């Protein structure tokens, strides 16, 4: 999984945080800090939430 310049191996993901606020979804890997106090994260449109969850789940189970 790639976040800008940060790469996290899918088997190293310990926990995800996914929050919907208005029209935005906030995705964070709180236990996979790139450096102290900085977790990989990104924001995407709420309309892509189901697609994101399905794609992410498939990546986890493979």
Structural write-up:
This protein is of the alpha+beta class and 62 residues long. It is 21% helix and 31% strand. The protein is built from 1 helix and 5 strands; from the N terminus they run βββββα. It has one helix at 49-61, and strands at 2-3, 6-7, 17-21, 24-28, 41-45. The strands form 2 sheets. The chain has a 3-stranded antiparallel β-sheet with strand order 3-4-5, with no helix packed on it. Strand 1 (2-3) and strand 2 form a beta hairpin. The longest helix is centred in the last third of the chain and has 13 residues, at 49-61. The chain is flat. The relative contact order is 0.21. The mean pLDDT is 82.
In short:
This protein is an alpha+beta fold. The protein is built from 1 helix and 5 strands.
Give keywords.
62 residues; alpha+beta; 1 helix; flat
Q: Summarize model confidence as the mean pLDDT.
A: 82
Could you list the spans in which at least 5 consecutive residues all have pLDDT below 50?
none
* Class inferred from helices and paired strands: alpha+beta
Helical content stands at 10-25%
Care to count the β-strands? Answer: 5
Instruction: Report the total helices.
Output: 1
Largest sheet: 3 strands, antiparallel
Q: What distance lies between the first and last C-alpha atoms, to the nearest angstrom?
A: 13 Å
Strand content: 25-35%
């Amino acid at each position: 999984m790639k976040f800008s310049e940060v790469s996290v191996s899918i088997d190293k993901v310990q926990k995800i945080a996914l929050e919907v606020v208005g029209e935005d979804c906030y995705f964070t890997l709180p236990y996979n800090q790139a450096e102290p106090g900085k977790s990989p994260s990104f924001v995407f449109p709420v309309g892509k939430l189901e697609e994101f969850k399905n794609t992410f789940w498939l990546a986890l189970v493979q």
